[in-house]
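Justification of computing resources. Each target in the renewal requires a structure prediction run like the one illustrated here; the chain below, 672 residues long, is used simply to show the kind of job we budget for.
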Amino acid sequence: MIKPLSTTQNPPEVNGHDISPAPLTKALKTCRILLVEDNPLEARLFQRALTDAWARSRVQLKFEIVHAERLSRACQLLETHSIDIILLDATLPDATGPENIDLIRQATSNIPVILMTGLDDAAVVAEAIRRGAHDCLVKSRYDGVHIARTIGHAVERHQLESQIARQAGEINRHESNFQNIVAVARDGMVILNEDEAICFLNPMAEMLLGKSESELLAQQFDYTVNLDQSVEIDLVRNGQERTLEMSAVEIDWMGKPCRLITLRDVTEHKRLAKEKALLERRLLESQRLESLGIMASSIVHDFNNLLTAIMGSAGAARIEVPETSPLQEDLQEIENSCQRAADICKQMLAYSGSKSAAAVQPIDLNSLVRETSSLLQHSVSKRAAIDHKFVKDLPAVLGDQTQLRQIIMNLVINASEAIGKKNGAIRIATTQSNLTDDLLRKEGRGHPHLKAGQYVCLEVSDNGCGMPPEVMKKIFDPFFSTKNTGRGVGLCAVAQIVKQHNGLITVSSQPNQGTTFRLHLPCAGERKPSLPITAPAPVKAWKGHGTVLVVDDELGVRTAIARILKHLGFDTIVACDGRDGLAKFRAHMDTIDCVLMDLTMPQLDGKEACSEILKIKPKVPILLMSGFSAEEACQRFADTGISGFLQKPFDHAKLTKAFRSILEGRAESCAP
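Resulting structure tokens:
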């Protein structure tokens, strides 16, 4: 039986008792009651009592009562009806006692149940509550007010329990999400209680600290981390040194004030930052050297022109002055000094990273060391004895004799100065060396061109004052020196020259234990070594004839060359740059027999001017002059028709030899 009940506007009171719990009236518009009672009379009395109790209520709430006489029927109705509360008789035809609650719970587990019993027995009530009933009504004692209040309280309790269950579910979901996030977090998390003991940590913290949760929980944290500060600690994990960054914040954990420590492995980050800083320093050094190289190249270009003019004038003067004149010796000294200055120019170019001045050829390192040592007799301290140890049948090295000689001189003089005023020894040795991949990884940083294999090694060692590690790190830096005075451009130039030769230089030293430099140079292969540079042999008298066009932007160079060519029997036409030279060649092409052209000039450079001249007169011999080495010049100007090349600065003998070669057809042109 389903009977709707309407309410009135009167307060929900009966005999002064409130029968409308607020949650019930707020949450429900209609309360559907399943009354399970096998006695029709008691069922009608129940409905009437409830109707009378609510008849005067002003709360807009309706009741619908569904009646079932058996438990089985009640279970069927639960499947087809939406029920808010069940009033269950303890004695039914198909079930009896508190066990009824178990049976009804099999049909529904979330609808509140009130057990109605005819026995006023506390034990029965307690058993019913234990089995899941929300309340009990004793039939002999209840009235409409009691029924309404009990129903309201049961529904209110059920709603509160449902709300708590929902909130607990939300909390569990949030906690599960938190646990999942913490479990996969890339940062370690450690929570410390007020006693600085660990009360929680995530898997990443276990890994970073190298201990398990069971080893760390309830233990004191080993590190001090202040709030809102980051600290770095170094520890060893699995035999490897690692760096952890730690920070701390205050949090509320399980209702108590705690401290959250976050841990992050910054080992790789610091390594990358260090590598980045190193690359930036190398880039800055490279840019600085590049700037210095541009400046050095410009200075060397101008200086070579001055040296060419001086050497040319001195050479011309030697021709004009009688051979018995005392001036011959002075003029020879001028030429020698110019040659030494030219060597310094090459060092400056080497320091700047340029290969322009390098005259690469196979070299017998043993012979070069012997010759250089003899030149150093007056430069080395009288208290320093030089000892040589040479390996026989040493393979030739591929390099520039002047630059390698300067390296030997620089290292030997440094060794002499390290010995100072005490007695000491300088040992110069040559040998073959095997550069392994391990050694290259250790010593060959910044030299990716190096390959493992056989090298020729030059070793210069002394028993002087030695160097501490902090000095050793800087000895190859630009402008670094431990001396008040120096020679040449120092060890920075040495390192640059070695790099240009595809070699490696290493140093080992300890304070008061001496220093050893080892220079590793690649072998020249099957190419035979040339002899060391010696003083040029006297040039036999040679005379030419014809007209030479001399093109150079330096007046002193043009004048000196024209003067020498005049002594050789040539007429000369001079031009101040490429454009002027091209114009004068067009004007005198029929009489010009040869062209001597500078490479670097304003207006029109030598390469472009030569190209235009060869278009006009393809067979005219052209001799190109520049500060470049002959090898590099031939690489740059191959297939251009240039007849020969003359490296600045040059003297009377070299100029004579060059003209004789191209005019007699023996020149080594720049053609491949």
